Amino acid sequence: MPEMNMVQAINDALASEMRRDDRVVVLGEDVGKVGGVFRVTAGLYDEFGEDRVLDTPLAEGGIIGTAIGMALYGMRPVPEIQFADFIFPAFDQIVSEAAKMRWRSGGEYSCPMVIRTPVGGGIRGGLYHSQSPEALFIHTAGLKVVCPSNPYDAKGLLLASIRDEDPVLFLEPKRVYRAVKMDVPEGDYEVPLGKAKVVREGSDVTIVSWGAMVYEALAAADTAAAEGVDAELIDLRTLWPLDVDTIVESVKKTGRLVVVHEAPKACGFGAEVVQLVNEKAFLHLEAPPARVTGWDTPFPYSMENEYLPLAHRIAPTVLETARF
Amino acid sequence: MMEVQSRDTEAMASGGASLDDGSLSELYRGMRRAQVVDARFAALGEAGAVGFLPSGAGREAALFGALHALRTGDWVFPTMNDWAAALYRGMSLSTFAARVLAGAADPLKGRDMPGGLSARGLRIASVSAPAGTHLPHAVGVAWAARQRGEELVTAALFDGREVDAADFHTGLNFAGVMKAPTVFLCRVREDEDGAAEHAVAYGLPHVGCDGADVVAVYEAVSAAVARAARGEGATVVDLELGDDPVARLRGQLIERGAWSAHEDEALALAVEAELAEAIAQAERGEPSLASLFDDVFEALPPHLERQRDAALKRDR
Question: What pLDDT is stored for residue B315 in this prediction?
Fold first, then answer.
């Protein structure tokens, strides 16, 4: 089984699905000859040609708008937005059109498409190459939102997303694009949408996270373990629809919850996770559910390690929650 | 309007077959029918009996001339004022009335205002309210069809005011780059500039025509459709709207002995009767509450299942 980083795993998923299904096309700014700003689509243009891999004008609304048309016709477009920070010109197309197409047409039309975009900080990208806008899209009915944390899940989730009948926003944590390598099967497999994964079992406190922050939460769990606190860590993998059962089952066991995400705290997805736990496991809680998140400021260039909820900020909250 | 000429404009204006009186009478009957339906729903809307149906009055020649120039396999991307496109392509008045009433028999399950429309079987796209968002969709469908080896043209209908919207420019830009077989049909009112001068910037040929003259519209759009079908790319057509195009065509047909005032009155009465029957038949009850949760996703996810059950429990 070859070892791959996340860039290679996503590239492998795209190439293998394009070989298997000729309806799959890739489009975006510099995804063709250049192979993408992070090289995720490298080699696809050479293998599949300009009819399957399209370099588009720099206009995100047009990238998503034309992809919607392709999906309406019955293709499986996989548009790339270079950074999630630049997705907002396409916000209208995603929110007003793709997300609502099936519902507003009474089920006549659908938009099976996967919008791939790198998210998150930690690469010194400043305020326009670091954001995590997942909550804005989860708040829109009709979109699925996926965020893998490792190469294996990235490939399996992307294959499942391309084969899904609904529009999927596929968020790629660029901080761990190349930082993590692991064995990834060359063949076909899916990681099902809507299923979280318990990546560390524990009995004292439940940590919920996703994307690049899973590794920080894992490091914080190790710190807590050294202090005698046994943390369970859940990697959501699919943010929406949320696998609330896995979270609730864990909290019923531990009685304590800490949610970790990079996005700002106010109305962040952590608030939804906390409230769902309040609704479904309130009487099992032995401490106030806590959030460790980005601050309610824009994402800074110079102080990104102070903005991000890294292990040194997560560990104290895990200990406080466990010892409440 | 600023005068902008492209090389292709003259050739296109002189191309295309014209219409004989039989075809013109047929087109007229469709336009007159749409006009009667429009007036009836406007009256019912004012009386508060039905929701607001955006009017297509004044666009009949521009709409029907364009639809007649398209082939049945060509996709139409209309605005909320262009519901008569569905009537032209064969949607029954009973289905249309059910849509406008937005009740239990509504094919869109009561999800949008009366101007909302979707008719996949008629190759009519699902209509939304934001300005110009459908232009890139038309380009995407056109590109996809060509990529899949199907020869079809897409037609994006929009209004002069929409040329200010971002996605108008995006649509033309992508159409130019992707050489999409799309026709952009801009209905231009007297106080508007139209799309022609913008077409130049995106390398697209353009043509203007009298949008109140169904023959002129048919000829201009036919030439644009033929050009797209030949693989030569998109064309921008400005259809300049004018006074009552239905009365204008009626006058021409009567003058040539191809139509009569008597036939006209009989047609209007027949449409009124058919529509009254359709409205009476249309179920006025609400769509089922459970259906609110359908079609958000292909399959009902757990959270929507829980919300649906909660809504039904409270409803009972």
Answer: 62
